[in-house]
Amino acid sequence: PVTIEQRRKVAASCQSDLFDGVVPLYVDTMRDEVNESYAARPTRIYFIGRDGRIVYNPGLGPFGFNPDHLEGVIESYLSDNPTS
């Protein structure tokens, strides 16, 4: 994508297709400020809690990323932090 609108459209499509629209996604600026701040190369996945704190940081990706471990982290977080 070369415009912020295009980035948002791609993110919305991923959010809908991959997460049934339930998981909020962040779209970085066109200057890639978050990418630069958090070394999101080549892949970086953080799980951010409702309070804005980082719950899960697997390290530089994709090598440190373990989907099975992240699933457990998410389940544990949701169990300890119900929405209602």
Automatic annotation (TrEMBL):
One of its GO terms (molecular function) is thyroxine 5'-deiodinase activity. Coiled coil: none annotated. InterPro entries: Iodothyronine_deiodinase. PANTHER family: IODOTHYRONINE DEIODINASE, TYPE I IODOTHYRONINE DEIODINASE. This is Alkyl hydroperoxide reductase subunit C/ Thiol specific antioxidant domain-containing protein. It comes from marine sediment metagenome. The lineage of its organism: unclassified sequences, metagenomes, ecological metagenomes.
